[in-house]
Amino acid sequence: MANELTDSARSAERHWALNRRHFLRGLGACVALPTLPSLWPRFALAAQTAPSTAAAAVPKRMAFVTIPNGVNLESWWPKGEGKKFELAPTMQPLAALKNQIQIIEGLDHINATAGNDGSGDHARASASLLTGCRAKKTAGSDIRVGTSVDQVAAQHVGHLTRFGSLELTCDSVRNSGNCDSGYSCAYQYNIAWRTATAPMPPEPNPRLVFERLFGAGPAADRKKSFQSRQARDRSILDFIQEDARSLSKQVNAEDGRKLDEYMTSIREIEQRIARVEKLGDPPNPDYVTPAGVPDPFEERMQVMFDMTALAFETDSTRIATLILSHDGSNRPFPAIDVPRGHHDLSHHQNKKENLELIAKIDKHHMTYFAKFLDRLAKKHDTDGNSILHNSMIVYVSGLGDGNRHDHMNLPLILAGAGGGKLNMGRHHKVESMPMSNLYVEMLQHMGVEGVTHFGDSTNRRVEI
Question: Could you say which of 2.30.29, 3.40.720, 3.30.40, 2.60.120 is the CATH number of the domain covering 7-445?
C-alpha cells in the first residue's frame, strides 16, 4: 500500500525524531517534554545534517474516539450546510471549536450490516469501524476482519516515536468467548487491528497507561518503581527534580511557564488516577447502578483523554484510539441522572423520554471530547500552530440509530486541520459512500504514499 523506507533511512529518521525531544530522567522515570521553542536552536543545527521528513519536523497526528450504541440523530445533525450551519444541541459543547471541526454526513459501513450473517450488529459495528471489512462470524479463535486504519498509519510513522500507537479504553476488555450472537468478544471490544487476525487490545487501567508513558524500563521495572513510589507516597515528579531544575535554567521565561504547567498537569493526572483506584473498578455496566454507589467512569474518561493529549504533546505517539464504551454497553450514567442502561435506552421505540435521555448521554460524552480538543487547541506545536491544527481526530459511533441498528449515515466529526490541508468549520454532506473513503484521504494526509484503497473504499472522494 505504501512505499517502504529503507532500513537505514528509517533508522536515521527515528534518530532525528526522538533526539529532537528532551527527556527528564530519574530513578524509574523518563518524562518526555512538550515542545519548548527555546531549546530548538540547538536542534536547528542538527537538522542541517540529519535526514528528516516533513513528518519528523512537524508531526501529524491521528486519533479515533468511539462512542457506543448510536446517538439521538435529531439532536445530532446540524441545521444548514457548508460554512453556514448551526450546531445541534448535542454539539453545543463544541461551540468554541466550531471553526476547527467538520461534521460529515453520508458515510456508511455496509460491512457492518447483517448481510447473510444475521444478528450481531454491535460486534460488527466495532469490528468494521476502523477496518471497513466484514468480520468472520465466529466465537472461536479463528477471528478475521482486517487491518485498521490507525495501524496502517502506525506502520508508516510509528517508528518516529517511543510508541507506535496507543490504544485506550474507559471500559472493560474481553478478547475471547461469545459476546454477540455468535461473534467473538474480540470483535466487540477492539477497534484497532494490527493484522486481520490480531487485534490491538486497548488498555483499561489508567495506572498502567501512566507508567507506560512516564515510567522507565520494561514493564517489570516500571511496576517495581511504582510500588516504591506508592510505599513512600511520592510522585513520579519527585524523581526527576534534579533534571527539571537543570532544564529550567536553560529555557526562557515563557518555556519555564510551559514547563511548570506541564508538570502540574502530570501531577493532576496522578491524583485523578489515585481517585479512580480508590473507587475501584466501575460497576458492571450490564446492571443498573444502585443509587449512592460512586462510579469512577467520569474520572476514567477524563484521565484517558488527558493521557492521550499528553502523549500527543510530548510526541510519544502520533496514533491513538480511545473507546469510551464498547458497542452494546448498558452502562447507566448516575452522574447526569440517567439511571437506566445506555443500550436499553438506545432501543428507544421513538419514545420521547428515551430519546431525551439518549441526547443527554450524547452531550455528556461530547463535553469530555470538547475538553480534549480544547486542550490540544491551546498547545503549540513545533511550527507554532496548535497541536489540534496538526491533527486529524475522528469522533464516531458504529451505529446511527440504535433502535434500528443502522450502520448507514453514521454520526461522525472530524476535528483538526491535518496541518492546514483540511476544510474545517463546515457541515459537509456527501452522497452515501463508504467511510473507508474518508480513511484513504486521511492516510494520504498522513503521508502514507501510494495508498489508493482501504477496506471497502471506492474511487469517490469525501474531499475533506
Answer: 3.40.720
